[in-house]
Structures are given as structure tokens and as C-alpha cells.
Amino acid sequence: MFKKTTFAAALLAATVLSGAASAKTFVYCSEGSPEGFDPGLYTAGTTFDAAAHTVYNRLLEFKKGTTETEPGLAESYTISDDGLEYTFKLRPGVKYQTTEFFTPSRDFNADDVVFSFERQLKADNPWNKYVTGASWEYSAGMGFPEVIKSVEKVDDLTVKITLTRKEAPFLANIAMPFASIVSKEYADKLQADGKMNQMNQMPLGTGPFSFVAYQQDAIIRYKANPDYWGGKQKIDDLVFAITPDASVRYQKLKAGECHLMPFPNAADVAAMKADTNLKVMEQEGLNVAYLAYNTTQAPFDKPEVRKALNQAINKQAIVDAVFQGAATPATNPIPPTMWSYNKAVEDDKYDPEASKKALEAAGVSGLKMKVWAMPVSRPYMLNARRAAELIQSDFSKVGVEVEIVSYEWAEYLDKSKAKDRDGAVMLGWTGDNGDPDNFLDTLLGCDAVGGNNRAQWCNKEFDDLVTKAKETNDLAERTKLYEQAQVVFKKDAPWATIDHSLSVVPMRKNVEGFVQSPLGDFAFDGVDITE
């Protein structure tokens, strides 16, 4: 799928990591490999960090450290009185990156915005299916093909987006990574040359860093974009050193082989805080980890079976073992720090005896099932294998035999979407825009079945509530509807909610300017390394 670097390029990457390069180089020990470099096609934070937050921009961006939007490629916007037309005034003079594989001949303009959205919205667009097996999962899961009526160029620096209905979170949604703006000129050249897949292998955008090379599962290299509209970065070179094992990431950080790492083992955090060469940032994570049953497959198609299994899971034991207490057991599918969180919802009580009796009452005996465990660390689940082992032990106490399965990360994400998937898949979510819709509709809406909705759960009562909530700008009314939706969710139990975790980011003490994101992003614009 990806272009591999030559031996010489790999050697150069190793030189950069050793600190021998003269340019100011920042090394990020990332937790996994990207699925690709076209953020519109994917949903994983690993991929967004490697593409959306380095190479690309969006019409609106999230202000660093917040869930508030601010101008990005659009300097301003207006909304019609009926809430259906959004007119964006684009930033003039924005340059696309000049790379070894493409030299742009014009600035960013409205044609790029129209192209970036239409390729996701229109099935007959030649770019709609340019990557075999991939889909515009985020766009489809959020209902964009139904919500967006048209995207029109008014003039070179003005774009009008017309909706079919009011959509309260729309502005926050288009600030998300999947709505990144790509170059139509670059796309046209690739199409003419018969190299459309290159869009997903060699990205080109307006962002702070230009893509240089990728050695699959090993290293990604970028360089500062000298023409970036936000100003050239203080870092000359940015390196993603792909390091799936958290212990190895920590060793590299201590040795000075990388400047910052994500998702440390909870057991290592105290030592990190005591190390005078390091500093550690912490904040409440806007996240949830969950175990999604396939609600279309027997016996998981019965709510009483799902609730019985939930009673067998000792979530506090998972929090203690995996997070050393730096997380809390989850009750709802949204975190307690998010507005509209329903405090009145009661969690399924851990009660193995009650679980066993409920399974017997539902006619379930001798159940054998698979529990899928992620191969990578995520903020909401630092060690999925360990959590799966604990669930395996819990389920064995109620007569359920569990086989733990896993796959390489990109394959795991792809296979877990299958509507006929067996067993229950462990996954999670870090909010992308600070709106409850980004959890409730994106992960559990009927439009997301076969995509982000890994439970394959379509509940009309739930779906009507979250859809209605999107169609009003009245915050009190939206809150009421989302609170009701959480009650329906808990009653039907498509997931076992597991935890909400604390987000911990360790780095070398000479790293300056990094801002921890409530959205779980790792973005390096504005970052510097001091002597």
C-alpha cells in the first residue's frame, strides 16, 4: 500500500534519530502505524496525527487546548437565518507545500474546498472509491451525504455549503480531521497520471509540515513547510519513530532518542515524574473505552444477555490493573466531563451470581465467544490484552469461555466493522470536537452501522433522540435529549462501558510549546526544543 523508503533514506532517518543531523529535529515516538495519509478515509487518532495534524488544514481549526473553533483556511463565515446556508470567506495567499513529488502552480482556493467535500459526498465522483476497500467512514457515519445538500464555489475565495436540515454541531464537525482540505490540482495530476493511490501514500496540503518519506511500520519523516500561512515552524524536521511497545517508548524517551511519547504504561508514570530530565502533562481525557457486542448475532442480539454479561465484568479491577487507578469505571458512552452527561443513569452492578442466573434465564449455557483486543496503546485503553484477560477470567466465572483475538492495528479496525463479526470487540473513542453528538451519533447512530458503530446497533428510539438533538441550537433542549438517549443506551446495553482515563503525556524537559489537547491530538506546530 505504501511507498517504502530506500536504504539510503532509512539510513538518513537513523542519522536524524541519533541526533547527528545539524537541523533542529523533533522526534515523536508514536504508538502505531497510520492506516494511510488521507484523513478523510479513516477514523483512528494514530492516522490523524500522522496526516491531518501535520500535512493538512481545515476550514476551521480547534483552538489549541480547547474544543472551541477558530479560523483556519476560512477567515470568517456567516450563517443564514434559517440555519441552512453557511458561507465561508477563504484565507487569501495560502500556499500548498512544494515537495519532491509535486510543485503547485496556484494558491489554495474554493475549487479545493468543493473537491475535498464532494469526493466524500458523491458516489459518482471518480475519487469516491479511489482506495480499494476504504470508505469515507467518518463522513458517512455522521450522515454528511444526507445532511449536506450542496457545496458551491461563489468565487475563488468564497464557498457556500447548504444543508438539508439544521445541524447544531456542523461547525465543530468540519474542524475535525476527516474534513481536511486537499489540493484539487494535485489530485487532477495524479488522476491524469494514473496514480490516484498516491494521494493516500504521499500527502500534500497547506499544513505546517511537508511529507518527506515513510518507511512502513518504522519511521515517517516531515520537514517544516517554509510557506506555511501560519509561519514557518521552529522545528526544521519532524520524525515519527513508530514504537508500538510503551516500555520501549519510555526507554527511548529516557535515552533522549525521542522528545515526546504518548500513552505511557501507568506503572511508569511515577518514575517519569521523578526524572529530572522529563516533565509530564496530565488532564482528564475526553474519552471512553468499551466492549461492543455484535447485536445482530445470537445470543448477543438479546439485551438481557448483554446486560447479564456486563454484570460479570469487574471494571474496577481493570482500572486498577491497567491504569493504576488513573481512570474511572465508565457508566455512560460519554465521559462525565462532557456537557449533557446523565448522572442519574445507574451502572450495571458487578455481580457474578446475578450474571450467571440472568444468563440461565435467557437460555444461554456453554457459551463460547471471542473478545477482540487492540494491538496498540490508546489513551482510553493502555493495555487491551491485559484488560481482555481480566474479562476472560470474569466471564469464565459465569460459565462463558472466551478466546482472545487480535490483528495488526489497521486490519483490526477494518475487520471489526464487519456486520457478521463474531463476539465482542474492544475499542474506544476520544472526542473529536467536544460535542456529545460526536460520541452518541458517530459511534451508536444507525448511519454508523458497518462503520464506527461496531455494535451494529440500530435503535430507533435512540436514533430519533440524537437526530432531534442535532436539529436544534437550544442547549437546554439538546441536553435533555442526550440525557434521554443515554437512558435508552443503558437499557439496551449494546456495549459494556469500561473506563474513562486520565490523559498523560511525558516529554523531555527541553520541549517547549506543546499543548495537550482535550481531543487527544498530538500536533507539533508551535513546538520548539530549547538547549
UniProtKB/TrEMBL annotation:
Gene3D superfamilies: Dipeptide-binding Protein, Domain 1, Dipeptide-binding Protein, Domain 3, Periplasmic binding protein-like II. Keywords: Signal. It holds the Pfam family SBP_bac_5. CDD domains: PBP2_DppA_like. The keyword Signal applies. The keyword Signal applies. Residues 1-23 form the signal peptide. Residues 69-448 form the Solute-binding protein family domain. InterPro entries: Peptide/Ni-bd, SBP_5, SBP_5_dom. Its main location: periplasm. It comes from the Bacteria. It is found in: Periplasm. Belongs to the bacterial solute-binding protein 5 family. This is Dipeptide transport system substrate-binding protein. It comes from Aminobacter niigataensis.
